[in-house]
Specification:
NAD(P)-bd_dom_sf; oxidoreductase activity; oxidoreductase; alpha/beta; NAD(P)-binding protein; NADP; eight-stranded mixed β-sheet
Length: 275
């Protein structure tokens, strides 16, 4: 029997994360060890799902704002399996309002950008050759929401993490989102956090050519997060399609790109797009 594929899904307890886990269990044909990571660290609800004997599902505790939990998870996977094949960073938060507190703004950046990046960096040393990292981003990440001078900085061809962090820190120092918007930033902190994640994905891919590292917009999906903006048109199963393709589907050797459908309601498996 071949060694199992080892996969991690963050934010796995509900919504798109849980749907990704279900799809992996149902669609991956070989032996699989699936770590379902969440803040609570408890088993996810898989009632009614037939789990093949080749699949092991293991709950794992992970908080994106707790470096100790990030390190502990990567060390556990390394000790148990000597490596990782797939990392799907799905966990995120979204305050869908213009008047958030300074702590809520920092939390948005710390979870969606800094925390996700910390997970990537913790797992990079144990990712096996041709392993895949999938960062679940958003339609909100698109640079059309930013002033052209900010777009140019995000898209700098050889952007470094030092430069990206300077950019994010500049945004975080504005006293409120309205003042930031007057300087060319989008009105909601979520948009900046996801644009930063896209830029980080490009840097990670450039620095790790032995891996396939991509980001994607799952579309407007019927989750607690997505429903803040109205009635979403897509099911969680449809929202899982693009992340799943980037994790186990045929994407050639594409790395460092943003994948999405033509519209936020489209239910396809995505294609490469500018952001």
């Amino acid at each position: 029997m071949s060694s199992p594929l080892v996969a991690i899904v963050t934010g796995a307890n509900r919504g798109i994360g849980r749907a990704i886990c279900v799809a992996l269990i149902q669609q991956f044909s070989g032996p699989l060890v699936l770590y379902t990571a969440s803040r609570a660290g408890v088993s996810i609800d898989l009632a009614g799902l037939s789990i093949p004997p080749t699949v092991q599902v293991r709950p794992a505790q992970l908080s994106l704002t707790d470096q100790a939990s990030i390190t502990a998870l990567s060390m556990m996977v390394a000790n148990e399996h000597k490596g990782c094949d797939i990392l799907i960073n799905n966990a995120a938060i979204y305050y869908f309002q213009e008047n958030i507190t300074a702590s809520q703004l920092q939390e948005t950046l710390d979870v969606n950008y800094r925390g996700t990046l910390n997970v990537c960096q913790a797992f990079l040393p144990i990712m096996r050759k041709n392993g895949r990292i999938v960062n679940v981003s958003s339609l909100a990440s698109q640079l059309k929401h930013f002033h052209p001078r900010l777009q140019a900085r995000f898209l700098k061809p050889n952007l470094t993490f030092t430069e990206l962090n300077v950019l994010v820190d500049e945004y975080s120092r504005f006293p409120d989102q309205h003042t930031a918007a007057a300087s060319g930033w989008p009105l909601l902190a979520y948009f900046t956090s996801k644009a930063a994640l896209n830029a980080a994905t490009r840097i990670l891919a450039r620095e790790n050519p032995h891996l396939l590292i991509n980001c994607c917009c799952p579309g407007w999906v019927d989750t607690t997060l997505g429903a803040q903006a109205g009635k979403p048109p897509k099911s969680v199963e449809e929202g899982a399609r693009i992340p799943l393709r980037l994790a186990i589907g045929d994407i050639g050797q594409v790395s460092g790109r943003y994948w999405a459908n033509e519209t936020s309601a489209s239910a396809g498996s995505g294609n490469i797009q500018d952001w």
